[in-house]
């Protein structure tokens, strides 16, 4: 991120809560003591999720990175490097709902521009990287989310909302604003990546198929 | 050895070498930015591309290992085009601000763009801009110029041992930063300026002062610590502009400590540029003749044993030799170079040297540090210890320390205790580190001035030497009993026998009123109020520091950049410095002052030229004949048996070892006169306060 963080928004200190500690214990046993620095990425996630639970904004403050560095015997700068390299770690505070729109080729061809536009309109956001004034939504442009069969994708926090279009995006944002969490997955009449409106092939069992011949 | 063919020329290189090293062995120049032979290989600049026969595409030679019979081509059309393309990419975001860039003229990017670039750019879009970082008072950043070679990141992490710089973000947004704004806490941060291949990291104190081609360059030796770092003094118009390191693998590799590099501005402040004579309590400027005459008049009738001389930390061996000869001509054996009151066994050279030599650190396999903070006393030597520590791998180079460290040592240290009592436990083997030392093949003990300037210094010294004998640190072909000096003049002075004669007084006794006339040659590092009020003080030196204010006569001498001089580093390496500039005003080279005065006082010293004086030094101690080398350490100290026999009954005192240096940036008259060092001292004071807790 080229925008440097503002010291004012950084909390003075960060301590892992009991839930995080339980997760940390599970993560650390995966690595030998001498290689525990490998746990830096799961640890950053744990910190980010805890911030989400505690403050409603899932991000990793410097204090948390320092604490992770201390736990893993790393130089703090090494943790900063990792956290700033990966776009899925938020090093600045974000809104309660993180709207991540895929705009890579498949999604773009299938209408991700409409999704982006709907996000901006419904959430009241000027552009990518910005947070709505009510602090509820942050809009981010992301690269391929790996769900091209269900393009376009809008990822809200950890959930994929698939087969989006403008109106459905607006409806989703309205629901989120109302405090609801609509079920993740396709927003059209399909199951997972199966065809819309039900199966089109393999409608009968192999036995039945052979009988028909 | 592996045989590689570079452009048709076969060369033999060590297995595991890189293609780049093979090319260099064959005398081919390979352009590079990120590769640095003393840092790990990063391979991210791609400038060192070469063609390897049967390889499908050009390879980055810095990270490509050689194999038997490999054929490397460094000057084909493919290679040339690859370099041009890499250069074009590197220059996409690099500003064309060479005319206002301090690196201009000594810039790798500039040189290589001329040598290997295209001369034009096809990029018309906006260049990216990166915010500058504040890295403290020494290193200036212009981050837009950065080409992300990460040499600075690797240097701070690997050599300096203060991992504070990193490359954050990615791709277009990647930038070198400390992330959280802070000053670099390393004493070696100035080396970042040297290793940065572009103008992203430049010297803050000398920003916009001079151009690299304007300098007159003179080889010299650093005297601000006792390592004897090889330096090049770069001057313009009679003014020393900057000091950079020279490569000497046996001493400083290619690093230089911040104090040595940035004290330069202290060389033109608070200088003594004419003789001063105190009349009725007030200083009056005088001519050399008047000063000499009034000094001669004061000395008239004073018996030799009421005259004394104390030498300071920055003196060259020539002036020490001349002062010693003058004192003996005056009938005095009250001479001392140990203004801090340190105790060593001076009966043999091995008693006060860093015996294993600096390179010995690379061979040691266990280290005990007693009463020393190498990071502050000799930062470059500390980097060498760290290098050994890293190379040995986890647990391969156990290091223990007695006495609190005022700084993070930058390597893992077992802290054994505060005071000398720990030595007793080490001697009787009751703590585990005794076994570690004993089982090591080449154990090393570093004894510092935090231990040697105490009342019980002799007891500590002897305990350490006994421990060295017991643990095999002093054995055939290996002498790991090392004294870490803090004063550049000390070993040279000891070699010249600048010590009290049989009935002579040591420094402390001279100060206490043991002499009527006290000659201080650059000696400032002791509480000046210890000088008895009735003592007549002659101060010969270059800076108006503490002692000059107390003096009755001031004889202005030359700083180390202003005189040719011989210095002996802590390992006993005799090294020569040349004169870069002339001393200011009426100030003169110190030995010439002494020679001139000896004539006035009627005891003319028997040398008129520097060569004659140097011949006299060789006469006093033959080691001064072997310039640039260090005598191989003798296995045993000749006086060892004797020393053990007359073992003193001195007891350890219970008090903890105190660091020999309180403030790294303020240890001598030059650094105290330097505004840059004062700024460093101010900025890093909180850091020190935290470390002390």
From TrEMBL, chain A:
Instruction: From the Swiss-Prot or TrEMBL record, give the protein name.
Output: NADH dehydrogenase
Q: Which PROSITE patterns match?
A: COMPLEX1_24K (PS01099)
What family does the Swiss-Prot or TrEMBL record give for this protein? Belongs to the complex I 24 kDa subunit family.
Cofactor annotation: [2Fe-2S] cluster
According to the entry, what is the taxonomic lineage of the organism?
Bacteria, Pseudomonadati, Pseudomonadota, Alphaproteobacteria, Acetobacterales
Instruction: Please name the CDD domains in this protein's record.
Output: TRX_Fd_NuoE (cd03064)
Q: Which organism is it from?
A: Acetobacter tropicalis
Query: What InterPro entries does the record tag this protein with?
Result: NuoE-like, NuoE_dom, NuoE_N, Thioredoxin-like_sf
Q: Name one molecular function that GO assigns to this entry.
A: monoatomic cation transmembrane transporter activity
UniProtKB/TrEMBL annotation, chain B:
Pfam families (UniProt xref): Fer2_4 (PF13510), Fer4_NDSU1 (PF22151), Fer4_Nqo3 (PF22117), Molybdopterin (PF00384), NADH-G_4Fe-4S_3 (PF10588), NADH_dhqG_C (PF09326)
Domain 4Fe-4S His(Cys)3-ligated-type intervals: 78-117
UniProt-listed Enzyme Commission number(s): 7.1.1.-
Give cofactor(s), names only. [2Fe-2S] cluster; [4Fe-4S] cluster
Q: Does the keyword Iron-sulfur apply?
A: yes
UniProt KW Iron-sulfur keyword? yes
Q: Which superkingdom is the protein from?
A: Bacteria
For this chain, one GO molecular function annotation is:
oxidoreductase activity, acting on NAD(P)H
Gene Ontology cellular-component annotations:
membrane
| InterPro entries named in the record | 2Fe-2S_ferredoxin-like_sf, 2Fe-2S_ferredoxin-type, Mopterin_OxRdtase, Mopterin_OxRdtase_4Fe-4S_dom, NADH_UbQ_OxRdtase_75kDa_su_CS, NADH_UbQ_OxRdtase_ferredoxin, NADH_UbQ_OxRdtase_Gsu, NADH_UbQ_OxRdtase_Gsu_4Fe4S-bd
> What does the record's cofactor remark say about binding?
Binds 1 [2Fe-2S] cluster per subunit.
Catalyses: a quinone + NADH + 5 H(+)(in) = a quinol + NAD(+) + 4 H(+)(out)
Q: Which residues form the 4Fe-4S Mo/W bis-MGD-type domain?
A: 215-271
Domain named 2Fe-2S ferredoxin-type: residues: 1-78
Q: Which UniProt keywords apply?
A: 2Fe-2S, 4Fe-4S, Iron, Iron-sulfur, Metal-binding, NAD, Quinone, Translocase
Q: Which GO terms describe its biological process?
A: ATP synthesis coupled electron transport
| NCBIfam families linked | NuoG
| Family membership noted in the UniProt record | Belongs to the complex I 75 kDa subunit family.
User: Its function?
Assistant: NDH-1 shuttles electrons from NADH, via FMN and iron-sulfur (Fe-S) centers, to quinones in the respiratory chain. Couples the redox reaction to proton translocation (for every two electrons transferred, four hydrogen ions are translocated across the cytoplasmic membrane), and thus conserves the redox energy in a proton gradient.
Name under which the protein is recorded: NADH-quinone oxidoreductase
Per the UniProt record, the source organism is Acetobacter tropicalis
């Amino acid at each position: 991120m080229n925008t440097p963080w503002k010291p004012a928004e950084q909390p003075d200190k960060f301590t892992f809560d009991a839930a995080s500690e339980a997760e940390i214990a599970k993560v650390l046993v995966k690595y030998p003591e001498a290689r525990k620095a490998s746990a830096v990425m799961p640890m950053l996630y744990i910190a980010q999720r805890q911030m989400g639970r505690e403050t409603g904004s899932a991000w990793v403050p410097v204090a948390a990175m320092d604490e992770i560095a201390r736990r893993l015997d790393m130089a703090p700068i090494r943790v900063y490097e990792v956290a700033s390299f990966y776009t899925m770690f938020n090093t600045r505070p974000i809104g309660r709902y993180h709207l991540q729109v895929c705009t890579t080729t498949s999604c773009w061809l299938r209408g991700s521009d409409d999704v982006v536009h709907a996000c901006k309109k419904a959430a009241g956001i000027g552009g990518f990287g910005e947070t709505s004034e009510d602090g509820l939504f942050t809009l981010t442009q992301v690269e391929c989310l790996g769900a091209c069969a269900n393009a376009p994708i809008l990822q809200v926090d950890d959930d994929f909302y698939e087969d989006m279009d403008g109106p459905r995006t607006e409806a989703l944002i309205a629901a989120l604003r109302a405090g609801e969490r609509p079920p993740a997955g396709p927003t059209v009449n399909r199951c997972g990546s199966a065809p819309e409106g039900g199966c089109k092939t393999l409608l009968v069992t192999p036995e039945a198929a052979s009988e028909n011949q | 050895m592996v045989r590689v063919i570079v452009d048709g020329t076969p060369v033999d290189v060590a297995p595991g070498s890189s293609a780049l090293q093979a090319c260099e062995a064959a005398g081919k120049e390979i352009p590079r930015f990120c590769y640095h032979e003393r840092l790990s290989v990063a391979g991210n600049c791609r400038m060192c591309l070469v063609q390897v026969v049967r390889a499908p595409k050009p390879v980055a030679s810095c990270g490509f290992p050689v194999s038997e019979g490999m054929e490397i081509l460094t000057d084909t059309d493919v290679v040339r085009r690859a370099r041009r393309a890499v250069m074009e990419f590197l220059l996409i975001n690099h500003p064309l601000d060479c005319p206002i860039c301090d690196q201009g003229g000594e810039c790798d990017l500039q040189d290589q763009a001329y040598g290997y670039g295209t001369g034009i750019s096809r990029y018309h879009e906006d260049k990216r801009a990166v915010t500058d970082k504040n890295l403290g008072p020494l290193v200036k950043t212009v981050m837009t110029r950065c080409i992300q070679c990460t040499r600075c990141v690797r240097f701070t992490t690997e050599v300096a041992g203060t991992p504070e710089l990193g490359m954050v973000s990615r791709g277009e947004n990647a930038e070198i930063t400390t992330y959280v704004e802070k000053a670099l806490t390393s004493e070696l941060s100035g080396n970042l300026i040297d290793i940065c291949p572009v103008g992203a990291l430049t010297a803050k104190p000398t920003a916009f002062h001079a151009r690299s081609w304007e300098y007159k360059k003179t080889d010299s030796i650093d005297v601000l610590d006792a390592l004897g770092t090889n330096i090049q003094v770069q001057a313009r118009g009679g003014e020393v502009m900057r000091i950079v390191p020279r490569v000497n693998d046996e001493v400083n590799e290619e690093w230089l400590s911040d104090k040595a590099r940035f004290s330069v501005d202290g060389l033109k402040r608070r200088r003594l540029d004419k003789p001063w004579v105190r009349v009725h309590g007030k200083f009056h400027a005088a001519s050399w003749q008047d000063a000499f005459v009034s000094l001669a008049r004061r000395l008239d009738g004073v018996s030799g044993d009421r005259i004394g001389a104390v030498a300071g930390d920055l003196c060259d061996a020539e002036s020490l030799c001349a002062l010693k000869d003058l004192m003996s001509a005056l009938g005095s054996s009250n001479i001392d170079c140990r203004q801090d009151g340190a105790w060593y066994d001076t009966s043999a050279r091995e008693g006060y040297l860093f015996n294993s030599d600096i390179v010995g650190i690379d061979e040691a396999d266990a280290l005990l540090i007693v009463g020393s903070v190498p990071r502050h006393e000799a930062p470059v030597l500390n980097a060498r210890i760290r290098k050994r520590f890293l190379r040995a791998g986890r647990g391969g180079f156990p290091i223990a320390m007695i006495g609190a460290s005022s700084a993070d040592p930058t390597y893992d240290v077992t802290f054994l205790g505060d005071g000398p009592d720990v030595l007793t436990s080490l001697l009787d083997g009751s703590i585990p580190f005794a076994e570690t030392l004993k089982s090591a093949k080449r154990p090393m003990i570093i004894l510092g001035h935090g231990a040697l300037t105490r009342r019980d210094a002799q007891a500590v010294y002897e305990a350490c030497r006994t421990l060295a004998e017991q643990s095999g640190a002093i054995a055939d072909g290996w002498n790991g009993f090392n004294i870490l000096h803090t004063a550049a003049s000390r070993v040279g002075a000891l070699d010249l026998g600048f010590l009290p004669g049989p009935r002579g007084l040591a420094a402390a006794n001279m100060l206490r009123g043991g002499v009527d006339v006290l000659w201080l040659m650059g000696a400032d590092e002791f509480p000046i109020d210890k000088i008895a009020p009735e003592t007549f003080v002659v101060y010969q030196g270059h800076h108006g520091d503490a002692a000059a204010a107390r003096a009755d006569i001031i004889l202005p001498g030359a700083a180390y950049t202003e005189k040719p001089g011989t210095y002996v580093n802590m390992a006993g390496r005799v090294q020569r410095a040349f004169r870069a500039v002339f001393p200011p005003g009426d100030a003169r080279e110190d030995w010439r002052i002494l020679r001139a005065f000896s004539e006035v006082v009627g005891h003319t010293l028997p040398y008129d030229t520097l060569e004659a004086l140097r011949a006299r030094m060789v006469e006093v101690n033959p080691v001064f004949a072997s310039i640039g080398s260090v005598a191989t350490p003798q296995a045993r100290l000749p006086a060892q048996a004797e020393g053990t026999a007359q073992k003193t009954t001195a007891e350890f005192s219970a008090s903890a070892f105190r660091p020999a240096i309180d403030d790294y940036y303020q240890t001598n008259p030059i650094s105290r006169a330097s505004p840059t060092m004062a700024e460093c001292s101010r900025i890093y004071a909180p850091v020190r306060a935290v470390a002390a807790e």
